[in-house]
Each structure stands twice: as structure tokens, then as C-alpha cells.
Design brief:
Blueprint lengths: L2 H15 L2 E4 L5 E7 L2 E5 L12 E5 L3 E4 L5 H4 L6 H4 L19 H16 L12 E2 L2
Antiparallel strand pairs: 1-2, 2-5, 3-4, 4-6
Length: 136
């Protein structure tokens, strides 16, 4: 199996298992999986200081998480927004299914805002570790 065939099978599997799909335009889908409300332990002990201490986290409501990092083809339709139209290509490593890896937090939020306004029908946000609720 070639690398492209492997990537295609992973893509097809994600499409099959997606709980929600948003069509971004130009035949570009974005797949999401539902993360149910509940409790889990986050962090570690003894590996990385910024991940200590391990602690319980409570998710008070379900949410959807993108199956893949935002790809170059995914961000393409949003480049029409004023905040991104004058920006050079946001990736060093080129390829439609490769991640967008050189964007600021503000640019990531611009993409989330565009996705919320035009495609998703519900609020989209970039998840950060500090946005989870700690239950002690």
C-alpha cells in the first residue's frame, strides 16, 4: 500500500465514523467526532512539569472535535475573510491534506469565527488546555 493509499484509507475511515461533517466548499469536508460530557484525568506525573499535577477534569456538556488538524484545503475557503486575504500561505510544508502549522492564535480564531458564521450552524472554537473545567 502506498502512502497516498494509506492516507486515503484513513480519510475514508474518518468520513465513515464522523458524527458530524461540515462541507467547507469546493468539495472539502471537515469531519467531527462527538466527545460526550463526563469526567477524565488529565496531566501526568514525572514526565513534563507543565502537565503536573494529574487532575480530574469535568466536561459539563458534549462537544464536537475535529477529527484532523485543520488542513490547508480546509482553510482555503476562509481566506476570503479580511483577516486572512493578505496573508501569505500559512504553511511551510505544502499539501492539501497537510496541517496548517504557521498561524497565530488570532488567525486560528478568525478561522473558527468564519466556520461558525458560514458553515457550522453552531459555535466553533479552538480548544486549549485551560478551557477545560477542573473538578479537583
Amino acid at each position: 500500500m502506498t502512502l497516498s493509499a494509506t492516507a486515503l484509507s484513513v480519510w475514508d475511515e474518518a468520513a465513515r465514523k464522523a458524527d458530524h461533517t461540515v462541507e467547507l466548499g469546493g468539495g472539502v469536508p471537515m469531519f467531527f467526532r462527538r466527545i460526550p460530557a463526563g469526567e477524565f484525568r488529565m496531566g501526568s506525573r514525572g514526565f513534563y512539569g507543565d502537565e503536573e499535577p494529574a487532575h480530574r477534569v469535568l466536561l459539563t456538556h458534549d462537544f464536537y472535535l475535529g477529527t484532523f488538524a485543520v488542513t490547508q484545503s480546509s482553510i482555503g475557503p476562509s481566506r476570503a475573510t479580511a483577516a486572512l486575504q493578505d496573508r501569505p500561505e500559512p504553511s511551510h510544508f505544502k499539501g492539501a491534506r497537510r496541517p496548517v502549522e504557521q498561524v497565530s492564535w488570532r488567525e486560528a480564531m478568525t478561522f473558527c469565527d468564519w466556520l461558525t458564521r458560514t458553515k457550522a450552524g453552531q459555535r466553533c472554537a479552538r480548544r486549549r488546555r485551560g478551557t477545560w473545567s477542573s473538578s479537583g
